């Protein structure tokens, strides 16, 4: 799941507890981000606890290929407390600033491209995906792996039916002929005959 998440995101928000330090899941997340070549913003959480030691944590991290700016690296680190709500705006601002520096922009026009987050049988084959480019609309013809579809129904993360989905938007999609694997790329094609040709 971590690897899949790193493949479909533009920035990894790495959350590490200031009182626990580097854990196995921290290392897995760093490896996934590095493999996917996705930049990291570090959120050092639980800074409200008396045993929290964010500086000790930042000193440990370069060994694991995570060097914060104040230790000679290029990773922004923000001390937060999710429980108390402390410094969450600063974390959001650092993430937005990095997105602006990287000039992260998706093209809402042109053919749809997205990556499958999960796929399961529910109301027929259902796929959850994040739009990476283009605008997905009801009736669009899509291909993935050896399957194709005409979008019958789409819904947002709250289960509300929607008629279109824009870049960076997670969306549930119903209409696939068959299930396929998480991580597969989904592409829009111009017609049903073209879809049949692509998956043949």
Automatic annotation (TrEMBL):
Q: Which superkingdom?
A: Eukaryota
A Pfam family hit? GTP_EFTU
Q: Name one GO cellular component term.
A: cytoplasm
Q: Which residues form the Tr-type G domain?
A: 1-112
Q: Which GO terms describe its molecular function?
A: GTP binding; GTPase activity; translation initiation factor activity
Q: Which UniProt keywords apply?
A: GTP-binding, Nucleotide-binding
Q: Please name the PANTHER family in this protein's record.
A: TRANSLATION INITIATION FACTOR IF-2, MITOCHONDRIAL, TRANSLATION INITIATION FACTOR IF-2-RELATED
Protein name as it appears in the record = Tr-type G domain-containing protein
Please give the organism.
Rhinolophus ferrumequinum
